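Q: I'm teaching a short session on how sequence maps to structure, and I want students to see two examples side by side rather than one. Could you give me a first protein with its sequence written out and its structure tokens following it? Keep the formatting plain so it prints cleanly on a handout.
A: Of course. Example one:
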Amino acid sequence: MIALSMRLLRLGGRRAVASAALVGIGIAMGTALLAVALGAVHGWDAREERAGWRTGDVVAGAGAPVALLRTTLDAAAGRVVQRVDVAALTPDAPAPPGLPRIPGPGEVWFSPALATLARELPPDQLAARFPAPAGTIGDAGLTGPGELVAVVGRTPAEIPDAVPVTAFGASASDLLMVYRQLTYVAAALLVFPVASLLGASARLTAARRAERLATLRLLGASTGQVTVAAVAEVTLIAAAAAVAGIGLQWVAAPALTAIDLGGSEWFAADLRPGPATVTGIVAGVAVLAMLSALGGMREVVIGPLGVARRQRPGSARLLRLLGLAAGVVVFAAANGARQVAPAAIVGLVFGVGVLAMFGAVSLIGPLVVRLLGSGMVRSARTPAALLAGRRLLDDPRGAFRPVAGVTMAVFVAGFLAPLTASVPEAAYGDDDALRVVSSRPVADLEAAVRQQLAERGLPAEVGPADVHADAGVVVIPTPPADRDAVRTALSSLADRPVLTEREADAAGVQLVADLRTGALVVLAGTFLIAATATGTTAAARVLDHRRGLRLLRLAGTPLAVLDAARRAETVRPLLVLGGIALSMGLLCASPFAAASGVLEPSGLAVLAATIAGGIGLVVAASAASRPLLRSVTTEAGRED
């Protein structure tokens, strides 16, 4: 039966090939985006493994220490530089990742990006703060190719506040844990739309497939034979498309590395899921496609004559409202569990709640479509409105698929819009005054600072100030003095790097920026899903209804009326479902930000872009499938 199924597909002509291509395109794109989401999780793990010894929370280990380690932040050219001071305590101390050995006192090793920046800037703006570099740090010790890191060799006496370490292994980081949990939530925002796209793609042109299989059933094929034929066709196409999707993600990985998160770009290998994950993705996609095919077999096996006669009773019942209530209950439970869950799984716990809300939106979608269809039939004043209403009533689940992707995108926008507006730009302090902290008396420090600046010819305002409960001096460079030149000139007088208040909290500033970047990436991903789903399902719906469309055309119905009916059966459900999805997205965001945040400029920008993009996708899909509509209603051909 597998060979027969493939033979029937090959003999189906251009229409069969087009149908299989639509299925493959949807599954390939969904698989690629799923691999991107899982690849991001893999990327954080890879970063921690390579650079966790210095980016994590450095703590003293059990056993005899082999080195002293201290990490601080510096800045140059508006970018953060991580400075790692290390001192060996034993002659046979292991080398840190990316280095051949622990740097000796007075030695410094630069990351490639920092070495390039030091060459490009005047020496008094960066290079003069360090000795001449002894070498460059390898990729095995970096979070990404653009990371700015300097590993400086010291004697133990030079860094009395350093932490003794027993090995240079990855250590846990609260900040990295935050990023990982946020990635889990972002993955949850993408996984359900991707899964919906995969399932919908597997069901594309299901009507045509069901008719062909029903014919086999009426000709005497057994239930098992028909089942194998149905499953084989969809599963083989899905598996091949899944492999193509994985290949697409691998090819796209170098471009994805440009997304700066956590203070650095990525290595392409970090964003590519491992072999076990890839195998699981392909197997999962094939299983999902198989289940989708089996789900459409019930009417073929039980009532093949009804399928052949194209009798399609509606299947969206009011019981789906129970699913909505269940989704809200699960979300409330997950949100409550999130507040008491361990930090390592809080993102996963909340992600379960988000998935439940996604499921609720997807579950009630066909019901809303059915109710809209019923209302359109009762209130129809034009032939197009009547045709649209009847088609919505005839197949509410099929009518929901072209708008499901955009509906999911609106849900994601409703979740992200208030979050992007919840943190003000100026939440991390002053970015003008450089702060100089030293153990010497403030008066002596101020005098030394003034003398140093005068000798270098660097004009600046200087005055005493408290810097986080430490006495120090603040310096505000005035034109034409360069901030980095002032920073370099004063570095020898300070006990720690000379930074502004905002630069000292670089991690918090970076996190806020990354939240917005992540929101845009997730929103772009959902729109890519929506574009794929809307385009493929719109074309597939024309192919599935080609017989009825052709008969209407032969009966004298103008093509413009059929086109208007297609638009009406898409736009009206989209407007209603979009409002429902927006409300549920705001509900998901409510534990973290007030719904009123959506009225902030950044929130309104996200919503406006989503609405404009959603309308644009629907219009584009309608325009793209119009030639197909003209073709199936004017060309003579077989009904199968």
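Q: Perfect. Now a second example for contrast.
A: Example two:
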Amino acid sequence: MMTLDQLNAAGPAEFVALLDGTYEHSPWIAERAAAKRPYLTLPQLKHALAAVVREASLDEQLGLIRAHPELAGKAMVAKTLTAESTNEQSQAGLTACTPEEFARIQRLNADYKAKFGWPFILAVRGPRGQGLAKAEIIATFARRLAGHPDFERAECLRNIHRIAEIRLNDKFGIEPTLGNQVWDWAEQLAVHSDPGFKEQGQLTVTYLTDAHRAVAARLLSWMREDCGFDEVTIDAVGNVVGIYHGSDPSAPRLLTGSHYDTVRNAGKYDGRLGILVPMLCVRELQRAGQRLPYGLEVVGFAEEEGQRYKATFLGSGALIDRFKPEWLDQQDAQGVSMRDAMLGAGLPATMEAIRALVRDPQRYRGFVELHIEQGPVLNELDLPLGIVTSINGSVRYLCEIQGMASHAGTTPMDRRRDAAAAVAELILYVERRASAVPDVVGTVGMLEVPAGSINVVPGRCKFSLDLRATTNTARDALDADVQAELARICARRGLSFSITPTENASAAPSDPAWQRRWEQVVEGLGLPVFRMPSGAGHDAMKLHEAMPQAMLFLRGLNSGISHNPLEAISNDDAELCVRAFQQLLENL
């Protein structure tokens, strides 16, 4: 098997020869990467090769894409594929298509090439490296056929890098066994889903349903039986808590974890990644008979998403005395109160028991959380890991503009009091204002014209506002400007408006010392340190109220999409996540 020492010592021509076949018929990538030696880690080499492609001209990138064969195409039939491509298409079953499957893929190949001018590229060995099912390949082919050329070109290149990564693993004899375990655990958890969703093949796990309790039971079993935690419990709000004692019982613990509930029709890694990775680290410590000088407490938070009850961050909030007594009386869509749901799950459902969960910050070194990015940035930059600088603060409103409904044909344009047109104007302002400042975002995600009709000027328009920024100052400035513009628009158009606050969450900047620890870990893996804000809320923003916190992001596949069945990670990236967490623990 190849080694990094061998690569670093090789002459330029030998370096290219050793990496032959990594990128299909494109030796220029290895030629340029040779000048960036020495490579101290395999992730560093992988990133350097991807960077060469990023820095290449458009013609060179298109040439790389066109150097790849079609899936189940003429080259496969003629048996002229490279050995690497033959192996990959064979593992995905493309060499054994039914006549119907083969015909379908041929039509997709022709349509795709006619639209984009290059062959469809997909890493058919998949995120686990074992090969995608043919049905999944065909579904992905059809979905991406609808894409924009610029996006699709970038997606082809990202798949080419994944193909190269797997080929490099083969050359170096590397198997990401820890990443495979994380991936497999996530798959096993995903078999549990709420009724009405499970039958449709959708993942939905809401607070204290049977599926939710099954996930908790599985986590508890793994922590106790597979990983060797010293103490494992399900607490009074349904959090799964595992403690691995340190060699010094008096030393403050490190707290970590994330949530195991999901949104409706969810992905498999949001939240759960941050539970499974530290669990696996404990398993490896236990197998090695090793104790850290401090204890590690891993919490699978029972609820973060606020799907069944309007009580977000219920699990992490309970640890910092933010569980509100009135939540117990909330009812779900079927009229089941949270108190009854807790009692049905065998929980005490009393504030006395819930308040007993509050942690003493003096007994903890801090809180760290691993999480998928849930966005496209790392994916677009070909970076597996990102350092979170701050969790955005946010404000949300439900709003309505009132005008006058009138006949669409007989009301002159200069006499209309069109509520929907005013909202449209505000939406464009939000877009301009948020785009003018770094790390600020604004969204109108809900829009409704009550009793609207095709031939009526809208007299009312309801809409939402979601405004976020890395600091409270920037968030509040955006909020003030948007509200002022709303008032100006309505005054000019002769309209009235109402605005009702629904959420106000403070920004949670990462603790500088803990952020630096994550940066050192990423540097140690041979990867660039990329700092970024988190636009989404996380359990870390609740723990931030009680102790220092910092987060590490892992890129997602499929352009980083999240809260969606297309949410995905690779086994290699999961392996890096585990290695990063292990190094963090060792460095403390």
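Q: What should students look for in example two?
A: Point them to this: DSSP finds 22 helices and 16 strands in the chain. Also worth mentioning: The first strand starts at residue 231 and ends at 234.
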